[in-house]
Amino acid sequence: MKISLRILLLALASIAGATFMIQAQTQQPMATADQAPEQPQQPVIKTDAEWRKQLTPEQYRIARKSGTERPNGEVYQTFKKQGAGTYYCVGCNAELFSSNEKFDSHCGWPSFYDPSKAKNVKSIIDPDGSRIEVRCAVCDAHLGHVFKGEGFSTPTDKRYCINGAILKFVPEELKKSD
Ligand SMILES: [Zn+2]
Prior knowledge:
By secondary structure, the protein is an alpha+beta fold.
């Protein structure tokens, strides 16, 4: 009787542990850093195994397999509350977007009307011609899509609809140099 109680307690503890891990995995906040990362000077090319090791499963699924995060998720809620700052690629640290071009499109994903470093963001027309995909020009990570002419009152009337999970945010007040 004593032994079975101990086993039961151990089983309960492991279930609680597993539940905690699942919650931690599904509720990932956006990656952040306390200072601007060093900028890559050349294309970043890694093997699939290296990407799997570096990125979280969610980041890997989006960046390397052109996945899409859940709209209005934890990352988006975090994004909405963020103040001034800069957004970098989680794959290679290249600067992509900043809060200067951030706007609320109510679409459920982080939205910007332009990249902050245009050379680091490339656009590719989807094979069926329906949408324009946006990728990191340095490490070729899938970022999201860009839509034009939707009638937003922004300087470009473009909506860069970006997966927040592949962004790394550095708040302005913590950014050491530029
Ligand atoms: Zn990148």
